[in-house]
Amino acid sequence: MNRRVSYRFAGVDLELDLSLGLFSSAGVDAGSRLLLKTLAKECPLDSPGRILDVGCGVGSLGLALAARSPASEVTLVDRDELAVAFTRRNAALNGLENTVVAGRLMLEGPHSSPYDLIVSNFPAKAGEPVLADYLAGSMDRLAPDGRAALVIVHTLADRCRELLDEVGAAVLHRESSKQHTVYHYRPKDGMSRTDSVDLDADEASEDALLAPYIRRSGEFKLHRTRYRAETVWNIPDFDTLSWRLDLIGGLLDRLPRSGSLMFWNPGQGHLPTAIAGRRGAGPTRIILAGRDRLELLISRRNTANAASGAPVDIEAAADPAFLNDRLEPGTVDLLVSDLHPVPRTDWSRSLKDLADRVVRNGGEWALVGRSSDAATLLKTTRGWSPGPDRRTRGWRAAILRKN
Description:
Radius of gyration: 22 Å
CATH class of the largest domain: Alpha Beta
Order of helices and strands: EEHEHEHEEHEHEEHHEEHEHEHEEHEHEE
CATH architecture of the largest domain: 3-Layer(aba) Sandwich
CATH superfamily of the largest domain: Vaccinia Virus protein VP39
Strand order of the largest sheet: 5-4-3-6-7-9-8
Helix content: 25-40%
Number of strands: 18
Number of domains: 2
Strand content: 25-35%
Structural class: alpha/beta
């Protein structure tokens, strides 16, 4: 936890615990405050209903609505398991029992019935195709007389207005500050579109779920290995590979890899796809683990195409320590960790404990990250023998063998 802050919505006081690993780590951000202000003015908050908060972060929007309307059922979703963990923590902190929190992409199902209100502080870097898909999909999930409301950075406000017209939305309210714009909207005909839409269609088809996120499909080269992959918006390494990946790829390019392979923070899936698809590789199982559901889904998609029938499993976790009870000890032959530490947490101990538990004796642990982060982790290597270790441009990659 970074800090605890207080804020007030429509006469109700709330507290939030914040994280340096999540958006708006200093307090409730200005965009969320503007959206809450418009909801207090424009929405009948005393009427119970079904509410959905998309991309909930630490829960500032959905929890405020849950507190103001305790008879409502509020669902809060985020693709980041750290956000999910903090939202659950903040719901408990405020004694809110009318909430359901889940790790999902945008409007990913299941949706048991339509919503009376859908809200989102829409991420600026999500990409225009994702925004267009969200605007249309949010209207498809509204009850009759329901409304959707989102806040977006001011630089995207005009394009958002054009997309609302393109998807057949009627704008009920618009309000702007210097940095943000809020839109309240519903279908132009004023009728519910849920009768003609399968609310769970996106749950049934991963292809349909990922389609708006796809940014590029083509060939990549990691060190000496060529492979094909699809990449998505808002995750690094979508067009070209970084120095970080080339560095660890060079160390892992020595021999074909077989057995059980595990990847913590797989990103777009470049490392597991290249390693599993290398000539002579024989993985028997591949485990992809990390905070970000979008990373896990696109990585599984890319890796499965290269893994020659080996099962590819995903494990969503806010922290490596959460995986200790889910994985059998001593069953991983190679663990690859891409370091993305959350500041002011004991991240290095959690990752070291995971490696100690899951990697078999004689197995390997490969890691890559900023030189300072790698140095922090490599201070405590008892039980491991050092192997290849390389540095370049502020990055460091190393391989350890378990004694």
